[in-house]
Design a protein that fits this description.
It is a single chain. With 79 residues, the chain is an all-alpha fold. It has three helices and no strands.
């Protein structure tokens, strides 16, 4: 139960950290966000016990970093 709660909290923290640019189109940004969410799904699917949850943390952190970068980049995109 603790593991599931932890995964849900991590997932919700990622949802708020979305976006990307560098001159990219909105379609590219959405594709990047979708790819990151798919990667997160693959990671979380592999979590079956405490040991696998601990092993997943660095992978989840990497996805979170990508999502934060995407969010920062979208803040400079023209609206």
């Amino acid at each position: 139960m603790k593991t599931m709660t932890l995964m849900l909290v991590l997932l919700l923290s990622l949802v708020g950290a979305c976006g990307k640019s560098d001159g990219d189109t909105a379609e590219k940004v959405f594709a990047d966000m979708t790819a990151n969410m798919q990667e997160l799904s693959r990671i979380l699917t592999g979590v079956t016990d405490e040991a696998s949850a601990k092993a997943a943390v660095p992978k989840i952190d990497a996805v979170r970093a990508k999502m934060r970068e995407l969010r920062r980049d979208t803040q400079v995109m023209p609206h």
